[in-house]
Design goal:
Chain lengths: 290, 332
């Protein structure tokens, strides 16, 4: 077991974690703001991958797919928020959860009707194929690209939340929507945009992941479980937590795949169980009131 | 004077009258359920559907104990259903354990698993709980997938057909669908009685108190965590029994029954019928499976119809079919 192999595997873990971060961030932002756990999040990841595939095949360019798919699926998310989720805000927290679960069910079946049940291969765009020699080993260029896009998205998101007026409203609204309303902020529109943003993030994750995985209608179900594990480990509603936990889980999976392949699918759940035992609120979460 | 007393009397009689039929319904709920189950194979188009309603109905009843009565939305009950089914199948197929002992083993294993998962997930609150139960049940799913020498992995567990049951000197042909139905029904009936007994006990009152107001239940001195854990384990136990019946019925255990989609199906059935009502889960399982049966006649994409109906129920009829009927009857 030489150092080069370990470095390469470590890097695949980072790439895997980068995708998880996209999904978990979307979930976390929506929860932090609206108090809704979106159970359709995995299905929307899958819809993002299919949308990317479809747009790429229409335009003949991966880049249009990467750009348009998250925006289109984000718009679908806004429609979902307005029509289906908004009537449930005054009800129990379980109701939006149940509704989005049913929605995930419908989305998976709708994609099966439109694109068939079989997986579709999504070729790596030719500009990003091949490997790059970074001195310490050879790394697939596409994975480097994925990590780069995710890092850029995180930077933009951070700047947007910390440095803009909209970000200020979002952060304040997550703390106390009532006061924001009193101050004359149209919080309903903010929630609409935040839901769209969260969905767009998971759709972007879907498009980015597509060339690394087989695109099929069931791909969202594993992603949803992964995103839950990452948010529970990181702490619900914590953006830093989502990033740290995403990388942690990604690297843990890829390292287990190297040393004990049969445990690779199980390790993240074991990690979550451990965190629950030691720190039930997650690594970066605030303790809930008893 | 007389007018006012008579109006008081009528006010008194009103709710008391309603309480009358509802109390009678509650007192007779177990015999009525058993009667309905006895008639089921003769009312439904196929025996296979009747057995499915029996097994999934029981599964939803077990789930309802936690979701409907304790107010905990678990998304991991497929794990207990699957554990019951797998352990029973493995005990019969690999170790040649008699069917009844295998059934008890399956139930015990499911309850033990529920205890462990409950112990971990009850440390979290509210919305976290649903996510953690889902993730832990996926851990069970992937473990079963990996341990293929025991579980058959993706192909599912096979090779444990029970052809006949020997009970106290009798021998029952278990391949006859009607006889099989009634044997399985005996266990479902016993479980229904147990659930009814639990709900009527002081413990049943405490879990409903936790559902209504956890903080107040705690302030009243109840050990909320312990009560939740007991409710979780009992609920897992009933679901595991449904799993063992499923295994005995089909003589195969598909891996899919461990997936969280199965948990979601249990949630859907319970909500469609009416969470927190005694008859609701069976009504929901019947509605769900009938819908699947009818819609799959004209399209293989029945899930899109069932999913849409579920969404409409969450939006407009959150009390479910039975809960809405009861509320409507009580309003008249």
């Amino acid at each position: 077991m030489d150092a080069e192999l370990i470095a390469m595997q470590l890097f695949s873990g980072v790439a895997l974690g980068a995708i998880m971060i996209m999904v978990a961030l979307g979930l976390s932002i929506i929860f932090g703001m609206l108090g809704v756990v979106n159970f359709a999040h995995g299905a929307l990841f899958m819809v993002g991958a299919y949308a990317g595939l479809w747009i790429a095949s229409l335009t003949g360019s991966f880049w249009w797919g990467l750009l348009i798919a998250p925006l289109a699926v984000g718009a679908l998310g806004m429609l979902i928020e307005r029509v289906l989720i908004r009537p449930l805000y005054k009800r129990s927290v379980d109701d939006p959860l149940l509704l989005t679960f049913g929605l995930g069910y419908v989305l998976v079946e709708a994609v099966r009707i439109l694109f068939g049940s079989d997986g579709i291969p999504f070729p790596t765009p030719p500009q990003l194929a091949g490997v790059a020699d970074l001195g310490i080993g050879f790394f697939p260029i596409y994975r480097l690209f994925v990590v780069g896009v995710v890092a850029l998205t995180l930077l933009l998101l951070w700047l947007g939340l910390e440095k803009t007026k909209f970000g200020l409203i979002v952060r304040a609204g997550a703390k106390d929507p009532q006061i924001m309303r009193v101050l004359g902020v149209d919080i309903a529109t903010v929630w609409l945009l935040v839901f769209g943003l969260g969905v767009a993030l998971t759709a972007l994750g879907g498009v980015l992941a597509a060339p690394m995985r087989n695109v099929n209608p069931e791909m969202g179900s594993l992603v949803l479980a992964e995103a839950f594990v990452v948010t529970v480990i990181g702490g619900m509603g914590s953006l830093v937590g989502a990033v740290v936990a995403g990388l942690l889980v990604g690297v843990a999976i890829s390292m287990t795949a190297l040393f004990a392949p049969e445990m690779a699918t199980i390790v993240m759940f074991a990690l979550m169980a451990l965190v629950l035992l030691v720190r039930p609120q997650g690594l970066f979460g605030k303790p809930t009131r008893a | 004077m007389t007018a006012s007393t008579s109006s008081i009397a009528s006010v008194m009689a009103g709710p008391a009258g309603h309480r009358g039929w509802r109390a009678r319904l509650a007192a007779w709920r177990v015999p009525l359920s058993i009667l309905a189950l006895c008639l089921l194979p003769w009312l439904l188009p196929s025996n296979a559907l009747a057995v499915n309603v029996l097994v999934y109905g029981l599964l939803a009843v077990g789930y309802n104990l936690l979701f409907g009565y304790t107010g905990l939305l678990s998304f991991g009950h497929a794990a207990f259903f699957g554990a019951g089914a797998y352990v029973t199948g493995i005990a019969i197929g690999r170790f040649g354990v008699p069917w009844f002992a295998a059934l008890l083993l399956g139930v015990a294993a499911g309850a033990a698993l529920a205890f462990v998962i409950g112990l971990l997930s009850i440390r979290t609150r509210g919305i976290y709980f649903s996510m953690v139960t889902l993730a832990l049940s996926q851990l069970v799913y992937y473990t079963a997938l990996q341990a293929s020498s025991w579980t058959g992995g993706e192909n599912g567990l096979r090779g444990f057909t029970v052809a006949k049951l020997d009970i106290l000197g009798w021998s029952i042909d278990f391949l006859d669908p009607i006889k099989k139905y009634y044997v399985l029904m005996v266990f479902a009936a016993a479980a229904l009685w147990l659930v009814s007994r639990i709900l009527n006990s002081p413990f049943g009152a405490v879990i409903e108190a936790i559902r209504e107001n956890e903080t107040r239940a705690r302030a009243c001195g109840y050990d909320v965590e312990r009560t939740k854990l007991i409710a979780f384990t009992l609920s897992g136990l009933i679901c595991a029994l449904a799993g063992t019946l499923f295994a005995l019925h089909l003589a195969i255990v598909p891996l899919d029954i461990l997936h969280y989609q199965t948990s979601g199906m249990i949630v859907m059935m319970t909500l469609l019928g009416g969470a927190g009502s005694f008859f609701g889960p069976f009504v929901g399982a019947l509605a769900f499976l009938l819908m699947e049966d009818v819609v799959s006649l004209w399209t293989s994409h029945w899930q899109i119809v069932v999913g849409t109906v579920f969404i409409l129920f969450v939006l407009f009829l959150p009390k479910g079919i039975w809960g809405t009927l009861i509320a409507w009857r009580a309003d008249r």
